[in-house]
Specification:
Elements lengths: L1 H10 L1 H12 L28 H10 L5 H14 L2 H5 L2 H10 L15 H17 L3 H5 L1 H14 L1 H4 L4 H19 L3 H5 L2 H6 L10 E3 L9 H5 L20 H5 L5 E3 L4
Antiparallel strand pairs: 1-2
Helix pairs in contact: 3-7, 6-11, 9-11
Length: about 260
């Protein structure tokens, strides 16, 4: 595990994020859409290579079946690396990182609203989809609106002529999140993403664990400054909010933060 993390860090997280986004939207491999990816990437996107796991889960719900295969894949990934997929491989997470770099006044959310991810997971992905037998999260998902809704409408004149109020509702939700991304660190990941809600509980039990050496830490606060989830890793290094981006370990001036036995 240590050699793999060292390799990822040597390549650099932005390069890995770009490569992951391109791989998941490579266009030339449509037969791979039966295979779920481990991130939130809309399978309705014309260029999508893989299927969105949340979409597959909802599809099985509508037919009253249990998606054992998808849940198994997500479980294996989560038990090994926790929520690391969110920090390194998710295209929509990468977009949020990029949007936050825009120079504007920033807003710090002082309250932990991560619990709302479970409201979305249980209420929208679970109950609403099961009762209505329709993919309600996919219908409202801003990632889907950006990756699939806009490209499909832009390339299909027939669909453009059928645009209604629901499409503009989707676009409004997307616009709100795009605006929030500029002033708040990863708002969708932190407060809404149901896939993040699935991964989060595994952080405290995954093979990959971050550690903080309290005897070395000088409380400089630089780890909080660079954290894309705006969390204090010293308080709880196994928190479900952590996306294992390792930016804190990279920036720490005294090497007080590391993974497994590195500190």
């Amino acid at each position: 595990m240590n050699w793999l993390l060292s390799l990822l860090q040597s390549i650099g997280r932005p390069r890995i994020q770009i490569a992951a986004a391109l791989l998941q939207n490579a266009y030339f491999f449509p037969w791979m859409k039966r295979v779920p990816c481990t991130t939130l990437n809309c399978h309705a996107c014309p260029a999508a290579t893989f299927a969105c796991p949340v979409g597959i889960i909802q599809g099985f719900e509508t037919s009253r079946q249990v998606p054992f295969f998808v849940l198994g894949i997500l479980g294996i990934v989560a038990i090994v690396i926790g929520r690391m997929s969110c920090g390194w491989f998710c295209p929509f997470g990468f977009l949020q990182d990029l949007m936050y770099r825009i120079r504007t006044p920033k807003l710090t959310v002082k309250y932990n609203l991560g619990w709302f991810r479970y409201v979305v997971l249980i209420g929208l992905v679970g109950i609403a989809t099961f009762i209505a037998q329709d993919l309600w999260f996919c219908k409202l998902c801003p990632a889907g609106s950006l990756e699939a809704g806009i490209p499909v409408i832009a390339t299909d004149p027939l669909l453009r002529s059928q645009i209604g109020s629901f499409f503009w509702l989707k676009m409004s939700i997307l616009a709100v999140f795009l605006g929030l991304m500029i002033i708040i660190k990863r708002p969708f990941c932190r407060f809404v993403c149901p896939l993040g809600a699935i991964y989060s509980p595994f952080n405290s039990h995954s093979v990959l664990q971050l550690k903080v050496n309290d005897s070395l830490c000088i409380d400089c606060g630089r780890c909080r400054e660079v954290c894309p989830m705006d969390m204090n890793i010293k308080v709880n290094s196994s928190s479900g909010e952590c996306i294992r981006c390792l930016e804190c370990a990279k920036i720490c001036p005294v090497s007080a933060i590391g993974y497994d036995e590195t500190v």
